[in-house]
UniProtKB/TrEMBL annotation:
It holds the Pfam family CoA_transf_3. This is Alpha-methylacyl-CoA racemase. One of its GO terms (molecular function) is catalytic activity. Belongs to the CoA-transferase III family. InterPro entries: CoA-transferase_III, CoA-Trfase_fam_III, CoA-Trfase_III_dom3_sf, CoA-Trfase_III_dom_1_sf. It comes from Orbilia oligospora. Residues 40-59 are annotated as: Disordered. It comes from the Eukaryota.
């Protein structure tokens, strides 16, 4: 008899956002957790005709509810649900949850002291970039990776590009890198220095090793995963040793689909009793019995 996936029974509330957050939820779902995705409410969600399913592979094995976090009823719904979940995935930039009235320190963990809040920020949670927005190029710049890329010598660019390159080169050479850092630090301009490995070592930045998984006790992604002879291929396809499964078929996930079933399984909530639908979003019914 095989054992269930290691995260079976774990409840995850994933706030819909960009790829890092949904990808984290995907991994947790593949390892057995029940992941409830909280999407933005639109007039069509939770209605008789759901929105067309997405082909986004990051919604695998998830269910969805739609909630308007900006409405009092939607905010009350989230606060009522938080005590019943184990993990909350926050995909937003620093300060968004706090502004919404869901500060992890003063609100979320006060409602549920055992709650794990996974904050998917681009930069580390401390240091000079902690509150700044950024993109991939900024992250690889300050990690030392970007300094090792590119090619030496001039490049043949269209005339317009040459003019822009000359203009930006002239402007950036008017100040030192340290002066530009002073200007951009703490802003949302997504402008960060290109650090070398030597500079990282001098500043004692954390450099974490890569992680390689040999076996993966997750649910099957392909039906013939156990038949693969190469263990590395088998693990990469999502079927580790000791976990049965017939694979997985992607039908897509529509916002607001499947989540009400999960709410009833988790806490016994039903539409019309503990919550209602307003403008496509779930709202908590004040005075209802939890």
């Amino acid at each position: 008899m095989t054992s269930p996936p290691p995260l079976s029974g774990i409840r995850v509330l994933e706030l819909a956002g960009l790829a890092p957050g949904p990808f984290a939820g995907l991994l947790l779902a593949d390892y057995g957790a029940t992941v409830l995705r909280l999407d933005r409410a639109t007039p069509e969600t939770h209605g008789p005709n759901p929105l067309s399913p997405t082909r986004d592979q990051l919604t695998r094995r998830k269910s969805s509810i739609a909630v308007d976090m900006r409405s009092p009823g939607g905010l009350s719904f989230i606060k009522a649900l938080v005590p019943h979940v184990d993990i909350l995935i926050d995909p937003f930039r620093p300060g968004v949850l706090e502004k919404a009235g869901l500060c992890p320190k003063t609100v979320l963990t006060a409602l549920n002291p055992r709650l794990i809040v996974a904050r998917m920020t681009g930069f580390r949670r401390d240091g000079k970039y902690a509150q700044m927005a950024g993109h991939d190029i900024n992250y690889i710049a300050v990690s030392g990776v970007l300094s090792m890329l590119g090619r030496e010598g001039p490049r043949e660019d269209p005339s317009t590009w040459k003019e822009l390159r000359a203009l930006f080169t002239k402007l950036f050479k008017e100040k030192t890198r340290a002066e530009w850092e002073t200007i951009f630090d703490g802003t949302d301009a997504c402008c960060t220095p290109v650090l070398t490995q030597g500079e990282l070592e001098e500043q004692e930045y954390d450099q974490r090793p890569l992680v390689t998984l040999r076996d993966s006790p997750s649910l099957a992604i392909v039906s013939n995963a156990k038949e693969e002879k190469d263990v590395g291929v088998r693990a990469a396809k999502g079927q580790g040793e000791g976990v049965e499964g017939d694979g997985w078929n992607e039908d897509g996930l529509s916002p607001g689909v499947g989540g009400e079933v999960v709410l009833e399984e988790w806490v016994g909530w039903r539409r019309g009793r503990q919550f209602e639908v307003e403008r496509g979003g779930l709202v908590f019914k004040e005075g209802s019995k939890l």
